[in-house]
Every structure is written in structure tokens, then in C-alpha cells.
Automatic annotation (TrEMBL):
Compartment(s) of residence: Cytoplasm
Protein name: Protein-export protein SecB
Family: Belongs to the SecB family.
NCBIfam families with a match to the protein in the record: PRK05751.1-4, secB
Gene: secB
GO CC annotation: cytoplasm
Length: 166
């Protein structure tokens, strides 16, 4: 992913590079605490989806991004199942400024990892003897933008609440 050089003559801009080194499951959990009772009634569960990401710098230009996806299904007050997958990847990323780097590890990498997590969740739910569950796509670009906006608002709120020097 090389970008054209728009710098002044004599200045060098580092070339942008992105590579996927490895994609792997870091952790997986499936629980069906109320089985077999949950199989006896009508299957009309309420689902809850939670996603989170974590970034670990491994070394210069090498990052581990961990996407945690948790899905729970409840029938009335009884939990039918809880499944959690931590899908991870190791990515080589260089030549991006700080703002671009945030978007790479906060949105682009999770977008790459999500299909793997979705497949693992679908497989686990099916093996738990529940009807197939296929998660809809998550817009990580929008989630990242929302997170950035919330962080900016928190910073403004903290600044406004800070005591002013006299």
C-alpha cells in the first residue's frame, strides 16, 4: 500500500506498509449453563453482542490486535448460551502517521479479524446444538469514529471542569 510522495524535495516520507503475519484464535469459550432445559421450550431468544479490541505493540512496526466478540442468548431470564472468541492477528504496520495508525489498529485490523471470529462463533453455537447463528457485519470504521468522538468530548468535558488558575 504505497502512497505517492507529496513531500518537498530533499525530504523523505516513509513508505506505508501493511502485512498480515498471522491470524489465530487466542481464547475461546462456550457455555450452556441451562442445558438441557433450554431445549424444551420455544426457541425465541434475545441475543446480546459485545465487541472490544485490544492492541499490543510487539516490537517496532509489529502489532498484535485482539478482537473479542461475546454473544449471549437468553430465553426469558435463563441463559441459553454464552460464547466468546478472542480472534487475534499479528500485523506489520509502518509508515503511517499517528492518526492513520489509530484507524489501522482500531478499525482496519478488526475488520479483517471479524469474519474469522464470526465463523468460530457460528461453529461453536451449532456444536452446542442450537440453531445456526450468523452474526451480521460490524462497522468497525463507524465504531472507531464514535470512540474517537467520545474521547474528544471527554477531553473537552475534563478541560471545562478543571479549575482555572487565577
Amino acid at each position: 500500500m504505497a502512497e505517492p510522495d507529496h513531500s518537498q524535495p530533499g525530504q523523505s516520507t516513509p513508505e506505508r506498509q501493511f502485512s498480515v503475519q498471522r491470524i489465530f484464535i487466542k481464547d475461546v469459550s462456550f457455555e450452556s449453563p441451562n442445558a438441557p432445559d433450554v431445549f424444551r421450550g420455544e426457541w425465541k431468544p434475545a441475543h446480546e453482542l459485545n465487541v472490544a479490541t485490544k492492541v499490543n505493540a510487539l516490537q517496532s512496526d509489529l502489532y498484535e490486535v485482539v478482537l473479542s466478540v461475546t454473544v449471549s442468548a437468553k430465553l426469558a431470564e435463563k441463559t441459553a448460551f454464552i460464547v466468546e472468541v478472542q480472534q487475534a492477528g499479528i500485523f506489520g504496520i509502518s509508515g503511517f502517521n499517528d492518526q492513520e495508525m489509530g484507524a489501522m489498529v482500531g478499525a482496519y485490523c478488526p475488520n479483517l479479524l471479524f469474519p474469522y471470529a464470526r465463523e468460530a462463533i457460528t461453529d461453536l453455537v451449532s456444536k452446542g446444538s442450537f440453531p445456526q447463528l450468523v452474526l451480521q457485519h460490524v462497522n468497525f470504521d463507524a465504531l472507531y469514529a464514535q470512540h474517537q468522538q467520545e474521547a474528544l468530548q471527554r477531553a473537552k468535558d475534563e478541560e471545562a471542569a478543571a479549575p482555572k488558575p487565577h
